[in-house]
Specification:
Number of strands: 7
CATH class: Alpha Beta
Radius of gyration: 16 Å
Number of helices: 6
Strand order of the largest sheet: 2-5-1-6-7
Order of helices and strands: EHEHEEEHEHHEH
Mean pLDDT: 92
Structural class: alpha/beta
Low-confidence stretches: none
CATH superfamily: P-loop containing nucleotide triphosphate hydrolases
Shape: globular
Length: 199
């Protein structure tokens, strides 16, 4: 058994590349890292706005982070993104030496920041982020480009400007979401000394 896991938060705007970076880090750390996405904790929102903190069950996510920090297993929720609703089934995960937590609000909400040991913000221009969101939502969520663009201007950018982008000020490290993700992942692992996480 290892000592208390190191919890690393990765924040950034929608489409910034934070999930891609988190997955790249986990892949390189083999079986010593666990990824938790804040997106797993979405409620069903009849109003249709999922780009606000109230759309997420952050309290439950924090309780899971703390349980993992205490070397306890947890049941992570599974969210159906196509139908925008949580499923009744869960995924049981075990604590690992490194726990990555990613999401647009991960560096913006004080209650999450309190649990993090290290904070990374992914900087990517809004034009590139919109391009990625168009590609992702049209293929994964089967949405029309018009609806994606409308949501971007009505919900995504107002929240980004008011809340998400300020997470950069809380970060211990800022990285570019436009650079080669493999190189960025390697640089993060080296800078945080994650190859030598407690064992």
């Amino acid at each position: 058994m290892y000592d208390q896991p190191k919890i690393i938060g990765i924040g950034g705007g929608s489409g910034s590349g934070k999930t891609t970076l988190a997955k790249a880090i986990v892949e390189r750390l083999d079986n010593r890292a666990l990824l938790i996405s804040h997106d797993r904790y979405y409620f069903h929102m009849p109003c249709g706005n999922y780009d606000i903190p109230e759309a997420l069950d952050t309290r439950t996510m924090i309780s899971h982070m703390q349980a993992l920090q205490d070397n306890q297993s947890v049941e992570l929720p599974i969210y159906d993104e196509i139908n925008s609703q949580p499923l009744s089934k869960t995924e049981r995960v075990l604590p690992q030496p490194v726990i990555l937590v990613e999401g647009i609000f991960v560096l913006s909400l004080p209650e999450i920041l309190e649990v993090l040991d290290y904070k990374i913000f992914v900087n990517t221009p809004s034009s590139k982020r919109l391009e990625r969101r168009l590609t992702r939502d049209s293929t994964e969520k089967l949405r029309s480009p018009e609806s994606i663009i409308n949501e971007w201007h009505e919900n995504v950018m107002p929240t980004h400007n008011a809340l998400v982008e300020h997470g950069a000020n809380k970060a211990d490290l800022q990285v570019s979401g436009e650079k080669n993700v493999s190189n960025t992942a390697e640089a993060v692992i080296k800078q945080l000394n994650l190859n030598y996480a407690p064992t």
